[in-house]
Design goal:
Helix content: under 10%
Order of helices and strands: EEEEEEEEEEEEEEEEEEEEEEE
Largest sheet: 4 strands, antiparallel
Strand content: over 45%
Organism: Paracoccus aestuarii
Structural class: mainly beta
Strand order of the largest sheet: 3-4-5-6
CATH superfamily: TolB, C-terminal domain
Pfam family, one: PD40
Number of strands: 23
Low-confidence stretches: none
Protein name: Biopolymer transporter Tol
Number of helices: 0
CATH class: Mainly Beta
Number of domains: 1
Oligomer: single chain
CATH topology: Neuraminidase
CATH architecture: 6 Propeller
């Protein structure tokens, strides 16, 4: 194989070991674990089905310029954000056709629970990123966070009563949690690292997140970063993977259905 750029890997919390699933010269990002055992990723503006045997493109029709905000809804449909206009919009793919949700733009999908989705968005013309929820059909939008800080990377807890996210409201990006209606928002812990993209496991025992070095601005790609695991109460934090990555490594829900393994991307310069 030609020199690889992207390495799709899986970490097992029971063994504490990681294994490589696929290496490819293509820059691919943000693996979601499909219930059937394959991985949904994006690369070169498209969505792909990734397995140990390689990459297969997914036909998203006129929805092009797909980014790394995508996943699988509980009913099996693929949900994804794409810049098919001047701003990112959210789309659904049922295996045959693509439906564009009527949400305001820009909107970047991040998580789902039951018939609801949660996503990052900019509203009101100020370009400050907020967190919102809506029904999976795009109706009933509720913007949950104020425009006083950057709030991003939302993901539902398994019970659906909490939303995990990252926020720089305390100075730099930290891991936060709030009720599904936006109440009781607070950081779960505080440290000097720049922490992004928390994802609670389906079993409810773990939360995985991505940590940048202190002083990092935003969530850039191609940096030395680490993946951390903790309990939902913020205790037991431990660094489990060091890697060259960042943007694209752990953006969206990445756990296997059982909640003991998760997928991530490692990159090569």
């Amino acid at each position: 194989m030609a020199r690889w750029r992207s390495s799709l890997e899986v970490f097992d919390t029971r063994t504490g070991r990681a294994r490589v699933i696929l290496r490819t010269p293509l820059l691919i990002e943000a693996p979601n674990w499909h219930p059937d055992g394959w991985f949904l990723v994006n690369g070169a503006g498209r969505l792909w089905r990734a397995t140990a045997h390689g990459l297969t493109p997914i036909d998203t029709g006129s929805a092009e310029r797909c980014n790394n905000d995508h996943g699988i809804l509980p009913d099996g449909r693929i949900v994804f954000s794409a810049h098919d206009g001047t701003e990112a919009g959210i789309h659904l793919w049922d295996g045959a056709r693509v439906q564009t949700l009527g949400l305001p733009r820009p909107s970047w999908w991040h998580g789902a629970q039951g018939d609801r989705i949660t996503y990052a968005c900019a509203r009101g013309g100020d370009r400050v990123v907020r967190i919102a929820t809506a029904k999976a059909d795009g109706t009933g939008e509720a913007v949950l966070t104020p425009g006083t800080a950057h709030h991003d990377g939302p993901d539902f807890s398994p019970c659906g009563r909490w939303i995990w996210f990252n926020s720089d409201a305390t100075g730099h990006a930290q891991i936060w949690r709030m009720r599904e209606d936006g109440s009781e928002a607070a950081p779960v812990f505080r440290d000097n690292r720049v922490n992004w993209f928390p994802h609670p496991s389906p079993c409810g025992n773990h939360v995985v997140y991505l940590a940048y070095a202190p002083g990092t601005l935003g969530h850039p790609r191609d940096r030395q970063v680490s993946i951390w695991l903790m309990r939902p109460d913020g205790g037991g934090r431990r660094r489990i993977v060091d890697l060259f990555g960042g943007q694209g490594s752990l953006n969206v829900p990445c756990w296997a259905p059982g909640g003991h393994r998760f997928a991530y991307m490692r990159y090569r310069p």
